Amino acid sequence: MIQTAISNYLSATGHKALNIKAVMFDMDGVIFNSMPLHAKAWVKAFAECGVKFSEYQVYMNEGRTGASTIDEEFQKAFGRHSTPDEQRDIYRIKSGFFRQMPAPELISNITDVVDYLAENNIARTIVTGSGESTTLDRVEALFGGKFSRQLMVTALDVKLGKPNPEPYLMGLRKLGVAPNEAMVVENAPLGIQAGVAAGVFTVAVNTGILAKNDLLAAGANLVFDNMLQLLDALPSLIGSPKK
Questions:
Q1: How far apart are CA 82 and CA 55, in angstroms?
Q2: Are the C-beta atoms of 119 and 242 separated by less than 8 Å?
């Protein structure tokens, strides 16, 4: 399965080899089990302005910047673009709801995945559509220096955001690697589309409520049911240790 996925990636991109030197992780739903909390916060925030928005829609839109999410839903609900003030106000409301909730737990086995990469000298960063500073700060604190804030790409760094490849292209530049020297780990269709559009080998870990077909349809090179499956696959994906 893994070798077939790599062969398909090489055929699609024209690269001669996959030589992973760096891994770019999404944050919500990949590092933290925060998507259930974000889903509740978004549903409540949109309800306050008369927009019906389901938790499944939150998962499908995960990775998009807050402003883009709000604007798209305003077009559907009201037939017009949202104003900058509306985007700011609704995102502030959503963030307020999110911060009232308990701090999200780490995704099971994510520390084992990150530790394995660190032990094998594989660079790591976060590429997220989130701008939640409290959650980003927790990444640095919980992983003991295995992630650097300077290398992270957040909603505050990009203009377009996922599914546009801009965030992952910026991640490649910060890491100093080519597309075929990196791997993206995602959990949502828009993030998968962004990784694929950036020319990066993109795996999905289905940590949420989405159907597997939603992740495959987005173009994921591989789909795992949990982080333990990804951990088991890492030796085959990254090859020999790069110490």
A1: 21
A2: no
The secondary structure of residue 127, as a DSSP letter, is: B
DSSP letter for each residue of 7-35 = HHHHHHH--S-----EEEE-SBTTTBS-H
C-alpha span between 100 and 96 (Å, rounded): 6
Q: Give the model's pLDDT for residue 243.
A: 43
Convert the pLDDT of each residue in 170-201 to its tens digit.
999 999 999 999 999 999 999 999 999 999 99
- Provide the token pair at 209: 């409520």
Q: How far is CA 177 from CA 16, 170, 182, in A?
A: 15, 11, 7
* Nearest Cα residue to 135 out of 229, 231, 41: 41
Q: Which DSSP letter does residue 150 get? A: G
Domains annotated on the chain, with CATH: 2-34+106-238 (3.40.50.1000), 35-99 (1.10.150.240)
The pLDDT tens digits for 4-38 are: 999 999 999 999 999 999 999 999 999 999 899 99
